[in-house]
């Protein structure tokens, strides 16, 4: 009988064939396929052979890298990679061979679509879960500058909105000035005197735009020419002269004259701010468009380098998992995976946090927040990746996900102990003084596992020194309130109730008084608007045309075209 390890490329593998059927018939594709079949055959000939497992692991990641490079090279612009069902099974679960699958009685794809689904969360804690394909697409967004583009677009939109705010403020102050002039005209009942007052106000208006421009240039550090400096002085003198003359004409209405000056000053200030925004708006738009063009022209070779780097990272993390757990890497799927793994992670994490509530009080957490979770195919307990602030979690734990999470959290505590106080305190314990770096980590993981799964449940396994260390370094203090609990998505903490019924009486009174005050302010504003509207209506026939004050047109958001992250055809 022919030994299966010698068959090599004579064997066909249905899943492998389907995975590579759309990848072309180049020499690289054939080489990858033959290498996979050869190594699968060697592995199945002796599933305990560590060298065969390592060779199969190496061939598997070569296959995945090849598929993903083809995938990312086919994307246009910032479009995410799209995957077929066979590709998802291969990358996320390690299902690349029906030969390996059929070699195990435990294999099943039943419920595979629910593996990464989650229905729970921990109150006040947001953990992001990623399959490899989801994480790679998230990384692709960052590589292609999607978040930077969103930031630039947000800045651009903010400038547009601010521009409209200042434009509206200018219009409001012009309208308020009209209302004041209308009031003066009504009370004077002297058309000739009012006309002199109006002409002086109009003269001030005519100087406003140029005065604002000169002041903007000066405030922005732009040098004014000799002629511009002289003109600025002349404009200031004209405005002051007109104001002084107007003040004399309406000295019996000093308060109204002050209002006119205030609204004119407001217009000047807003125009200066508006000019700055218009200038910044052009630059923001140019920066956004040039960044989009640059990212759309990213060559395929750079995308391939990106995917190679990220896949190599995942591969190295997976191999580190195997090394830490003292097992050989076995990424190829040959068993049934449990559904809703994130729910099990959340439950285990909640139990850990109750035992060690200060674990996230680190400098790393303040900078980057909660670690994300990246699921990888294969077996082993989870580890922590400092570079990407992520837990690398194999879909098959050595024992259960509780111990897998404890392993990752302890490594998080270790790596984020930037002052080394925590690890040095543990290293000072008598049993651990002479341990190496790696052995000390393993001992800490083992002790944390015993502490959470045994000691806290009443089983006394520690000696006094270690128990005292956990009570001092890890256990919550008496004044620390621990309220971690698993909740369904959309479910609120039971302590937080909505509505007035759950408030204290003094809080209810305060809220009611605030609402009453707000209502009264709105009534006063409405009354003022009605009065102003009435004044304008009464004097429309006699002075409305004379009071038409001009505003220079400014950029409108409706005229600025929408910017989208388009792909180059």
Distance between the termini: 57 Å
Q: What is the mean predicted local confidence, pLDDT?
A: 81
Count every beta strand, where a strand is a DSSP E run of 2 or more residues: 6
Q: What share of the residues does DSSP label as strand, in percent?
A: under 5%
Element order, helices and strands?
A: HHHHHEEHHHHHHHHEEEHHHHEHH
Structural class by secondary-structure content: mainly alpha
Query: For the report, how would you describe the main beta sheet?
Result: 4 strands, mixed
Helix content: 55-70%
Alpha carbon gyration radius: 36 Å
Strand order, main sheet: write it out: 2-3-5-4
Please state the overall shape, judged from the principal axes of the Cα atoms. Answer: elongated
Could you list the spans in which at least 5 consecutive residues all have pLDDT below 50?
1-10, 494-569
- List the total number of helices: 19
Would you mind describing this structure in some detail?
The protein has helices spanning 14-20, 27-45, 50-73, 85-93, 98-102, 132-143, 146-188, 191-219, 226-249, 254-296, 300-324, 341-355, 363-368, 401-415, 421-427, 437-453, 464-473, 505-538, 540-543, and strands at residues 120-122, 129-130, 372-379, 383-385, 390-396, 486-488. By secondary structure, the protein is mainly alpha-helical. It has 19 helices and six strands. Strands 2-3-5-4 form a four-stranded mixed β-sheet. Strands 1-6 form a two-stranded antiparallel ribbon.
């Amino acid at each position: 009988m022919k030994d299966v390890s010698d068959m090599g490329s004579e064997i066909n593998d249905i899943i492998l064939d389907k995975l590579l059927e759309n990848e072309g018939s180049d020499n690289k594709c054939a080489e990858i396929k033959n290498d996979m079949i050869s190594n699968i055959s060697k592995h199945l000939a002796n599933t305990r052979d560590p060298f065969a497992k390592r060779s199969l692991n190496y061939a598997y990641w070569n296959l995945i890298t090849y598929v993903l490079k083809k995938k990312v090279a086919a994307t246009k612009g910032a479009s995410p990679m799209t995957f077929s069902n066979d590709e998802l099974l291969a990358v996320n679960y390690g299902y690349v061979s029906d030969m390996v699958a059929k070699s195990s009685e435990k294999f099943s794809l039943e419920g595979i679509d629910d593996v990464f689904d989650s229905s729970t969360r921990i109150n006040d804690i947001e953990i992001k879960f990623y399959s490899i394909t989801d994480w790679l697409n998230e990384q692709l967004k960052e590589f292609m500058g999607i978040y930077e583009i969103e930031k630039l677009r947000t800045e651009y939109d903010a400038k547009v909105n601010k521009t409209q705010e200042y434009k509206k403020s200018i219009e409001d102050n012009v309208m308020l000035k009209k209302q004041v002039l209308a009031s003066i005209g009504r009370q004077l009942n002297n058309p000739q005197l009012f006309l002199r007052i109006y002409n002086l106000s109009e003269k001030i208006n005519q100087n406003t735009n140029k005065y604002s421009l000169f002041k903007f240039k000066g405030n922005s550090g732009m040098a004014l020419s000799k002629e511009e400096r002289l003109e600025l002085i002349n404009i200031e003198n004209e405005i002051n002269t007109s104001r002084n003359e107007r003040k004399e004409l309406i000295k019996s209405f000093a308060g109204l004259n002050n209002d006119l000056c205030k609204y004119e000053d407001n217009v000047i200030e807003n125009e200066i701010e508006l000019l700055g925004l218009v200038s910044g708006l052009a630059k923001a738009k140019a920066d956004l468009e040039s960044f989009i063009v640059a990212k759309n022209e990213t060559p395929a070779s750079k995308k391939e380098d990106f995917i190679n780097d990220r896949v190599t990272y995942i591969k190295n993390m997976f191999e580190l998992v195997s090394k830490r757990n003292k097992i050989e890497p076995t990424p190829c799927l040959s068993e049934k995976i449990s559904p809703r793994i994130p729910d099990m992670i959340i439950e285990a994490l909640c139990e850990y946090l109750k035992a060690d509530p200060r674990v996230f009080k680190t400098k790393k957490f303040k900078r980057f927040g909660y670690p994300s979770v990246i699921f990888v195919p294969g077996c082993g307990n989870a580890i922590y990746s400092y570079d990407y602030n992520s837990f690398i979690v194999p879909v098959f734990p050595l024992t259960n996900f509780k111990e897998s999470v404890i392993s990752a959290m302890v490594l998080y505590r270790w790596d984020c102990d930037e002052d080394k106080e925590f690890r040095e305190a543990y290293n000072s314990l008598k049993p651990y003084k002479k341990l190496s770096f790696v052995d000390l980590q393993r001992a800490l993981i083992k002790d944390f596992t015993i502490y959470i799964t045994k000691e806290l449940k009443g089983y006394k396994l520690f000696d006094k020194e270690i128990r005292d260390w956990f009570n001092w370094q890890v256990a919550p203090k008496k004044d620390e309130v621990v309220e971690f609990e698993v909740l369904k998505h959309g479910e609120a903490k039971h302590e937080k109730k909505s509505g007035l019924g759950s408030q204290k009486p003094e809080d209810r009174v305060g809220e009611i008084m605030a609402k009453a005050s707000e209502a009264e302010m709105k009534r006063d504003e409405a009354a003022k608007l009605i009065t102003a509207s009435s004044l304008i209506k009464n004097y429309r026939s006699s002075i409305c045309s004379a009071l038409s004050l001009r505003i220079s047109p400014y950029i409108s958001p409706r005229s600025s075209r929408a910017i989208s992250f388009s792909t180059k055809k």
